[in-house]
Design a protein that fits this description.
Structural class: alpha+beta
Number of domains: 1
Number of strands: 23
Number of helices: 8
Length: 497
């Protein structure tokens, strides 16, 4: 258990030997490592859940024997080209076009949306623009599908939507809205030579209350990850629609709910499956699952135009440690080289875990193997950027939490949503970190580690020890958090002789 802990005095950070060294994460079984020099990787902000005017509405047909007509701009209103331009303006390096609609939407995506994506790539080349969709997910709600960049990407996505989207057929086919159908789809995606990614969107939006889940259940997400560990790699930690409590003039809507979470509210802007310390996400990590979190805009219509949304990158960012290539950004998402932030609270989060000799190291998304009884040094460096964010606020990091939990293997109860070993190891504040310009640095040592586990980092601009439920009418710019994906620490088996 990662409990015997000793902090190094902050002054020790001045020693050059404690600098953070960029190293590749340990390879994971079944994962294909990207052939990129890790030194060429940097934090690239992006958004994998962005709607355009090809997210269609439907108009019933006058002929009851014919399917409804798809209505362009019936669900979201902005061209893909506008989304990309606004993504660049708000600091993004990559984004994913993720539209959906009613019956036969696969044809609209293939024949209308994809050509516009190609034009958008030419018009805004500074933003890597992935082809994808928001899957109307069998036996669930929605999920982002991200297709690898290739000459065959248009047809690849067309086949996925045609064959697996639950709203695609007309008349509706109940057989396409079962968990078994979704697992069959994931098996097919996992078997592809260049598999896509599937990330569960707003997982608790339909939850009845905290701990009472809706369209997504813990057992269901375990089933996804078991079936396709290279494809079903995570969930939105912070959902979109975070501007739902803002009026068009920037004031507050008293009845606005962040994320559209009406019954089980977000907590500091994050879904309960992520935000609850020792909750569902920690239960997945406690099984040793490589199951990551992201954050998105879910942009449909901007709040100044009567919608509930921010532009891509305006409020929420998913940072991926990657070279500026399609393949390496996808590899970073697949392998958890990711941290997420709201309101530009931070713009870099580097965490390393190293053994006593300092030669073996792991970064976010990686794995460090040590002998039982080893000390493990955790180095955290965070950039707290100067200046105002897009809400006109100049946020400052008030606290950073180092969190640890045990890895004990598969849960006997597939519905488990807790990990009792998860705890805050240390809360760092201005008195316990070293500031050098915009960089905040801190060190902690886990002493005498004898059980496999993981560490992860989060931070906030406020003073809540744990994120509280977001009230209706809460201004999203005043309650900012960031979360980093974990590093796994594995006790290596003893060798004889």
């Amino acid at each position: 258990m990662l409990v015997l802990v000793s902090a190094i005095p902050a002054a020790a950070l001045a020693h050059p030997g404690h600098g953070v060294v960029a190293v590749p994460p340990a390879a994971k079984p079944g994962k294909t490592a990207s052939p990129i020099d890790p030194a060429k990787r940097q934090w690239l902000a992006g958004d994998h859940h962005v709607h355009s005017w090809y997210s269609a509405g439907t108009k019933p047909s006058d002929d009851p024997t014919k399917p409804p007509t798809l209505v362009k701009a019936g669900d979201a209103v902005n061209p893909i080209t506008t989304n990309a331009r606004m993504a660049k303006r708000h600091g993004l390096s990559w984004m994913v076009a993720t539209d959906h609609g009613g019956p036969n939407h696969s044809l609209m995506n293939r024949d209308e949306a994809y050509p516009e994506l190609v034009r958008s790539r030419r018009m805004t080349p500074d933003v890597l623009q992935f082809w994808g969709m928001e899957l109307d997910t069998p036996a669930a709600e929605h999920s982002s599908v991200i297709v690898p960049r290739s000459a065959g990407e248009r047809d690849a996505l067309y086949a996925i939507e045609r064959d697996y989207n639950r709203r695609e057929p007309w008349p509706a086919d109940p057989a396409r809205d079962t968990e078994g159908f979704m697992l069959d789809a994931l098996r097919q995606l996992e078997a592809q030579p260049k598999p896509p990614l599937v990330i569960a969107n707003h997982p608790s939006r339909t939850a009845r209350e905290v701990g009472a889940y809706g369209a997504y259940s813990p057992a269901e997400l375990r089933g996804w990850n078991d079936t396709a560990p290279q494809v079903a790699v995570g969930m939105e930690g912070a959902p979109g629609h975070q501007a739902a409590s803002l009026a068009a003039d920037g004031g507050v809507r008293a009845d606005g709910e962040r994320g559209g979470y009406s019954r089980a509210p977000t907590m500091g802007g994050f879904d309960q499956m992520t935000a609850r310390l020792g909750g569902f996400w920690d239960s997945m990590l406690g099984e040793g699952r490589r199951f990551w979190i992201t954050s998105t805009s879910d942009s449909h219509r901007h709040y100044t135009d009567g919608g509930h949304d921010f532009w891509p990158g305006e409020y929420s960012k998913t940072y991926v440690k990657a070279a500026r290539t399609y393949d390496d950004v996808l590899d970073g998402l697949r392998n958890g080289r990711v941290f997420v932030t709201l309101g530009d609270l931070v713009s870099a989060v580097d965490v390393t875990a190293s053994g006593a000799d300092g030669r073996q190291r792991a970064e976010i998304g990686g794995e460090l193997k040590v002998a039982a009884g080893s000390d493990v040094t955790i180095v955290i460096r965070v950039r707290d950027p100067k200046g105002v964010n897009f809400g006109g606020v100049s946020p400052e990091v008030a606290r950073i939490d180092l969190i640890a939990g045990d890895v004990t293997g598969p849960a006997a109860d597939r519905s488990q949503d807790s990990n009792s070993s998860t705890h805050v190891v240390q809360r760092f504040t201005s008195g316990t970190w070293v500031r050098d310009g915009q960089m905040l640095s801190m060190i902690h040592v886990l002493k005498d580690v004898r059980r496999s586990g993981y560490v992860r980092v989060r931070g906030t601009s406020g003073n809540e020890l744990e994120p509280l439920a977001d009230e209706r009418g809460e201004n999203p710019w005043t309650d900012l958090w960031f979360y980093a994906n974990p590093i796994f620490i594995t006790i290596a088996p003893a060798t004889s002789g």
